[in-house]
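One such shown below:
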Amino acid sequence: MRLGNLNIGVLACIVLAVAPSALAQQKGQYVPGQFGLNAGVIPDPGLTYANLALNYSASQLNDATGNHISGINGTYSFWVDENVIYYVPKRKFLGGYFMPYVVLNYANGELVANITGTSLSSGGGGSGFADMFVEPLNLGWHLKRADVTVGYAFTAPTGRFTAGASDNVGSGYWGNNITSGTTLYITKNKATTANLSMDWEVHGQKSGTNITPGQAFSMEWGFGQVLPLKKDFSRLLQLGLVGYDQWQVSHNSGTLTIAPPPVPTIPLSALPFYSVHAIGVQSNFILPAKHLTAFFKYYDEYRALARPQGRTIVFGFSWTLQIPKAPAPKTP
């Protein structure tokens, strides 16, 4: 079963203090940690519901060279609860399966965070329904030794956002995403897999400002092994090594005010690009007959440029209601 591509709109305005001046950075909407194992796996025909809870926390702020900026106190963190609904018709299209989905997100924390040069703490934060992610065009193919998906998605700025407010939970701008997922079956019995998902995001102008965040590219990967917990394969355990990498790939545009009167501004196009890299582990508990999977992931960010460096914890489940329902096995 597919476990990911659950996205939430996040815009973090990070002010990095480099005495005596300051630099700021605009992050994209995609939150790494969505994928891992089974990145290209296609749900069975029918309705699939997945719930994914993601917590990000960082107590270290890095400069453009990846060095820890000393004197920074506090933490930057947020929770996101992602509710995903897939629909996969039984009839094939272009030799594959049409599999659109929508993601409804609830966030707790100041996702549009104004992190000052003296503290990582965002000083408040809001909670509520955040931006909505919709993938109306998404196709998946079962190949002989791989499952592959490609699609187009958009992020709608449905979360609460007011420029300069401290209780924002939305990004304040539209986003467009080109996505793909691949699960390669290394062994004939499909128990050993290599996985890769990719997301390229292009952003619109942030409401109430002249700021347009630069484009970003995210890559998530994983190597997994399925182990039977019962001889009849009714209970399976999947373990694996996972990771994510994210890069800003184009300049921001617009200007940002960074101090009270006299109010200096800086062109965002002059800021260094951010990036982050993480490695971790994932475990899945799978009940094939019930079409149910529960999962847990932990990532440690081992390198970050021009942004916080922390850790990501993800857990949740997915369940498929088959339509039409699979026939019961024949009795001898």
